[in-house]
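[step 3/7] fold_predict: job queued, chain A
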Amino acid sequence: MVTSPEYRHVPTSSLARLAQRLGKVFASAATWHRLVRLHKWRRCRQRVHPAKPKVGIRATAANEIWHVDTTLIRLLDGSRAYLHAVIDNFSRRILAWNVSGSFEPAITAKLLRAASDATATSKPTVLVDGGIENFNSAVDDVVASGILKRVLAQTEIDFSNSLIESWWRILKHQWLYLNTLDTVATIEKLVTYLRRATQYSPSTFGISRTDSRRDVLRDGR
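[step 4/7] structure written:
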């Protein structure tokens, strides 16, 4: 009964009582657990999950796919700073960013427009997570204008928004947390420095790019 697929949904303790009701085995739950450990019986509980992509989404050219997200940073006095950014998938370039002391959902729309105006490229696909900062009237107006296409990660497509989440980890643990984060202005200064350092140096802070991506950064496209 322990290894039978028929009873795989029944916990071992409940299985002991069920076996007694069925008149098959008369033993306490402790005995069942002891025998399971002794004989190394494995419950038939293998979970079946849909296949997930092993490699993140990859663009073939600059400004083909963008990622937008918001992260929270705690300051020394316990207050919070909210950092918003738009990153290009191909070049890993920070297209637009903003840091503020309060959560402002409308910032995302402003950053998307700023990134679009700066690149002046064809309609990119923007990967977003679910949240009020990505789904509000201001962002809806940007999408309706036709300058970009919004796609909800892991819902409308199988891929996640992990590229920008990985960037947050690099930014925080390899740079911001090494400094004294006392004010929003300090974070703004640190992010400005990091952005300048990584825009033309692909290997800085562990950010890898191919040669073609390095050329894109050098030419500023």
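[step 5/7] annotate
The two ends are 65 Å apart (CA to CA).
The chain has two domains: 5-39, 65-219.
exit 0
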